[in-house]
DNA sequence: GTGAAAGCGCTAACAT
DNA sequence: ATGTTAGCGCTTTCAC
C-alpha cells in the first residue's frame, strides 16, 4: 500500500505538509500550489489513507456499531439500511452485530466493539432493564437506542410514536363496531411490549369499552409461534359470546401466528374475527388475508438514529428522544363486527 | 481506556511481557506465574486491548467487509447473518455496506474499505464483467464471492448449485404434464440470470420439449415490478393455445410480480397457469398461492463464504468454488396442466 | 523468561 | 507556509 510519505516524496514536500494538504479542514494552511501538487501526487499514486493509523492517532475510528437481535427478523434490515446510509454520507462505516438477545454474547461483543474503538453505538437490542447499556451510557459511551428504550429515559433514542399507532388501531376497530377486543401482548421486559399493552388498555377505556371485554394474553416473544400459542389460549379461554371479535397483536409476526391458530380453529379472518398487527413488515399485502397494521418508518428511524449519534459524538449534549409518526394501514384482516 | 502498560505496571512487568502473556500464541514464552499475574491484573482492570493499535502493528484488522446490493431485499439478510456468525467465532467483525448496484458508489466504498485495512471481502454484488472486482482479485485482495460469480472463474466463491435447482424445477413441471413452459429470465449480466436461463433451456430440451414451446422473456431486474412487466409481455405475446401452461421465474420476486400480472389478466394460479420461483425467500408459505420454489441455503452460503475467506487470509491458495445443494420446495403455485 | 527499543502510518503541537 | 518532532497503543526483534 502506498503511504502518505510516498505521496509527500512525490510532491516534494514533508509528510506533515502532505497531511495538511489532504485534509480539507487544514488545507487552508497550505499554499494553493502545494495543495495541488500533493493532490495530484496522491491521485496518481492511488493513495488511500490508512484509517487504522489515523484512528490510532486521532482516537476516532469513524466506525459505528449496530447491535440488533437478529437480522433475519424482517423488522431489522430496513433499520440497518437506514443507519448505514446515513453513516456513509458522513464517511462513517457500520459494524454489524447480531446478539440473539443473548446477554453474554451481547456483553462479549460490546466489549469487543469498544476495543475496536467504535465511536458510537446504534442499539436495537435494549431491554427495559439493561445493566450493560445503562452502565455504558453512564460511562459516556455515545449511544442511540432505536425502537426499544430503557426504563430510565436518560439515553437518546429514536422510536416510532407507538402510542399514536396503537390509538389508531383501537379507533379503527371500535369504528368498525368492535366492543370485545383482545390484545396479544409482546414481552413486557421490552418497552415496545409494555407501551403497546398500556396504550391498548388506555385507548379501549377511553373508547368506553368495558375492561372485562378487553382481555390481554401474554405472548412469550415477538414470533409467529408465540402468536399462535397466544391465540390458542385466547380461543380456549373466551368461548361463545365471550369471544372477542377483534384482536390487536403487538406486532406483525404475532398477528401472522395468530391467523394460523384462527384458521386451525375453523374461524375466518376477518369474517369471524378481525386481526391487526404492528410494524408493517414487508410483503404483508401478499399474505392471506393482507394484514391491517401500523406502518413504522424503520429505515427513517435508522437514519435519524445515525444522524443523532453522529451529533452526540461530535458535541455531546443532553439526551434527545425522537418520536417518528406512524400510520394505520387498513387492509383486509379487519372488518365489521360479525352479525348475530 | 486502560492500556496494556497499565496492566503491565499493575502486574509488575514490562509491557512486552504483558503482551506475550495476554496472547495465547506467545504465552508459552512466559513463566506460568507471570502469566497468572498479568491475567489477574488485566481482569481486575477490565483491560480491553486496543484493536486499532494492534491492527496498525500487525497489519491485520480482523475485520471483513460484506458488500451487498441492498439489505432490504429479503435474499440478503440470511447471508449477512451467516457471514457475521462465522466471523464472530474467529474473533472477526463484519463491516456491512450496501451498494445499490451503483458502480461509482461501489468503487468509492471499496476503496474506503481497503483504506480501513479490511482483511478480506465477502462480495454479493458481482456482475459477470466486473473490472473493479477482477482488478482487486488480481491484486491479491482476499475475496470470496457469494451467489453471483465472475465470468473469469478465478475468484473463490460459494453459491447454490443452481443448475441442480433449475433441473428440479423443470422436472417438476414436466412431471405435472406441462409441455409449454416459459422462463422469466433475470438480468443476463449477472451469473445467476445467465445460469438459470441456460439451464432452463438445456433442461427443457433434455425433457424433449420443443424449443418453440419454451419461450424466454427477459426481465429488467430481479424485482416484483420487472416480474409483472415480463409476465404482461408473455401474456400479450402468447395467446390462445400458444400460451404456456407454466412459468419458471428466475427468482421469487419475479414470480410474485408475475402472479400479479396473472391475476390482473383474469387468470388463476395454478389452475390456469403454474408459476415457480427460485431462492425460497421468507414467508412464501403465507402468500397466495404459496409459491413453489427452490430452497437456497443462504445463511449457510454466508457462513461457508466467511470460513473460506478466513482460510484465504491465513494461507492463500488456489481459488476454490463451493456449490451448496438446493432443493425443490413444492407448494401450491404449481399444479397439473389445465385440461381442454 | 524478561526487558529494551523500534516502528506500524498518521496527525498535531511546536518551531522556523 | 512548511518542516520537525513526538506519540497514539501495540507487537516483536533483539539483547541479556
TrEMBL record, chains A, B:
Residue ranges annotated for the HTH lacI-type domain, each copy included: 2-58
Gene Ontology MF: a single term: DNA binding
SUPFAM superfamilies documented for this protein: lambda repressor-like DNA-binding domains (SSF47413), Periplasmic binding protein-like I (SSF53822)
CDD domains: HTH_LacI (cd01392), PBP1_LacI_sugar_binding-like (cd06267)
InterPro entries: HTH_LacI (IPR000843), LacI/GalR-like_sensor (IPR046335), Lambda_DNA-bd_dom_sf (IPR010982), Peripla_BP_I (IPR028082)
Disordered as annotated region, ranges: 1-27
Residue ranges the record marks as coiled coil: none
Pfam families: LacI (PF00356), Peripla_BP_3 (PF13377)
Keywords assigned: DNA-binding, Repressor, Transcription, Transcription regulation
Protein name, as recorded: LacI family DNA-binding transcriptional regulator
Organism of this sequence: Streptomyces chiangmaiensis
Taxonomic lineage from the root: Bacteria, Bacillati, Actinomycetota, Actinomycetes, Kitasatosporales
